[in-house]
């Protein structure tokens, strides 16, 4: 805009500039508007089989001097921009930093035939205070149920494997002004792929900025064999539950809360006789027999004895225990490397003599390795 001042009047001159976008020599967009006029270049992104658009290039410049595909662009002169393509095929991994730059000053990196460790941070010209949040196969992620983003997600530092039959394209997401939660499956895996689940609203204009939702449940994860999801921990060690499944969760605007899956071994409990329970814990390859005080009194015993057998009747382990005061008797046995099939329980009188008929229990958690 140019302002000319004379003694009697002010002349206001408004500048107009034309932006034209091309795919090779084919014009796909043209507009003339008053300055300043901002264009979201992502609205004009092109698709071509065997290629991925990685930016917009000025004519007659080097190939690393171009705008990212999601640039908010304000031309200050008449400008022509050309779609810039990168060929991709099987075993390729293409990382797009969008408005984040890699160390070589480019906004994208391509790797072929190798596994890639994702960068934990990119360089952002807008500010040195911007942190990389995560990587996704979604160029524009949408928040679905419970504010969980669609698509497949990874954290910086995770390893991405090349796929033999297709290319893999991932986009960098910087931390936004809204609260975000990132769920780590620890021993489990994410059902839809990737290494984490991201929950939040990806926008700097969301009101309120705080994330207000509920923690996700087990349906998002594949549990390790013989384990169940107990809850979520704020510690990477994931030993204690800080958030129950479905518990209300609030993350302040601009903050990122990492949550780690806490897994506990599944338990299968049977009661072959009143006062006697047999619990199998496959994750620990353990069988626990509990004899209540009332059972001991009824049998007239102070000790319990149990034996564990495999499917061929071979003895695996035995355990003997004594009643302690008002408590019952707890007996534990291991079956490492074998398949536990049957447990036999006896009450033991004085001089270690079993009394009565053995309680025989066939373990219902069958094929427990």
Detailed description of the structure:
The structure is a single chain. Helix content is 2%, strand content 48%. The protein has one helix spanning 293-299; strands at 2-5, 10-13, 16-23, 26-34, 39-40, 51-58, 66-67, 72-73, 79-87, 92-96, 100-101, 108-112, 116-117, 123-124, 132-136, 153-154, 159-160, 168-174, 180-184, 189-190, 197-200, 211-214, 221-222, 227-233, 248-251, 256-265, 268-273, 276-281, 286-291, 303-310, 315-322, 329-334, 340-348, 354-362. The strands form 11 sheets. Strands 4-3-9-6-7 form a 5-stranded mixed sheet, with no helix packed on it. The mean pLDDT is 89.
Strand order of the largest sheet: 4-3-9-6-7
Cα gyration radius (Å): 32 Å
Q: By helix and strand content, what is the structural category?
A: mainly beta
* Residues in β-strands, percent: over 45%
Question: What general form does the structure show?
Answer: elongated
Helix content: under 10%
Uncertain stretches of 5 or more adjacent residues? none
**H/I helix tally:** 1
The overall pLDDT average reads: 89
Count of β-strands = 34
Query: Sheet bearing the most strands, described?
Result: 5 strands, mixed
Distance between the termini: 78 Å
């Amino acid at each position: 805009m140019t302002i000319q001042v004379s003694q009697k009047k002010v002349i206001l001159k408004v500048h107009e500039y034309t932006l034209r976008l091309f795919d090779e020599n084919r014009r796909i967009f043209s507009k003339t508007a008053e300055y300043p006029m901002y264009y979201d270049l992502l609205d004009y992104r092109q698709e071509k089989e065997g290629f991925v658009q990685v930016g917009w290039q000025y004519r007659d410049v080097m190939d690393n001097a171009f705008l990212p595909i999601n640039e908010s662009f304000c031309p200050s002169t008449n400008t022509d921009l050309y779609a810039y393509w990168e060929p991709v095929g099987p075993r390729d991994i293409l990382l797009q930093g969008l408005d984040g730059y890699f160390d070589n000053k480019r906004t994208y990196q391509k790797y072929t035939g190798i596994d890639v460790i994702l960068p934990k941070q990119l360089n952002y010209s807008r500010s040195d205070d911007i942190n990389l949040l995560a990587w996704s196969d979604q160029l524009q992620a949408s928040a679905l149920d419970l504010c969980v983003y669609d698509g497949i997600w990874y954290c910086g530092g995770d390893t991405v494997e090349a796929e033999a039959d297709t290319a893999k394209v991932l986009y960098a997401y910087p931390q936004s002004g809204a609260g975000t939660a990132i769920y780590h499956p620890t021993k489990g895996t994410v059902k839809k792929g990737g290494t984490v689940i991201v929950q939040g609203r990806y926008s700097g204009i969301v009101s309120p900025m705080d994330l207000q939702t509920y923690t996700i449940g087990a349906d998002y994860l594949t549990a390790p064999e013989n384990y169940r999801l107990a809850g979520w921990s704020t510690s990477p060690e994931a030993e204690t539950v800080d958030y129950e499944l479905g518990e209300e969760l609030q993350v302040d605007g601009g903050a990122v809360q990492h949550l780690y899956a806490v897994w506990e071994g599944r338990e299968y409990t049977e009661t072959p006789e009143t006062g006697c329970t047999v619990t199998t814990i496959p994750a620990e390859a353990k069988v626990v027999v509990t004899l209540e005080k009332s059972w001991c009194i009824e049998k007239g015993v102070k000790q319990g004895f149990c034996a564990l057998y495999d499917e061929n009747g071979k003895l695996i382990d035995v355990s003997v225990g004594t009643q302690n005061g008002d408590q019952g008797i707890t007996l534990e046995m291991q079956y490492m490397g074998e398949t536990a099939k049957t447990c036999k329980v006896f009450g033991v009188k004085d001089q270690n003599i079993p009394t009565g008929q053995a309680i025989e229990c066939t373990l219902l958690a069958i094929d427990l390795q």
